[in-house]
Fold this protein.
Amino acid sequence: MKSNSKGKSSRSRAVTLIITPDMLAGMYEYLRTTPPFKGWKLPPSSEVKFNVSRNPKEYGYYQWDGKRHTITGSIKSVGQTITLAVFMAHEMIHMYLEIHGLESRKGGRDTHNAAFKKRAARVCKWHGFDLKAFY
Ligand SMILES: [Zn+2]
């Protein structure tokens, strides 16, 4: 989920969450206990690095450097629990695809192939997320 396709909101919100690596890890662990993630055997949060960025142009991203999984969330784009949940679920699909060699190697860093879309549909159905806004 690279770009914030909704652009800047003109609505002002009095309060938003200031996301922290702990919140990212907490949401990751929560989702790991729920379907369909539960069956995916993703590594525990202790084996994943969680980062917070200040880039307003992205929600965040998942990276595998050959040794470690890293999930980076943008403090500028994620300010509510639902956004955090959707963001994390999205990146966990990328992680699953990477682990199983299903991630696309061409078409840029944030390509959503058929394998991604299939799992996204399942995730959105279980969690009540809007598939139209999921990727
Ligand atoms: Zn993506």
About this structure: Residues 21-130 form a domain with the Zincin-like fold (CATH 3.30.2010.10).
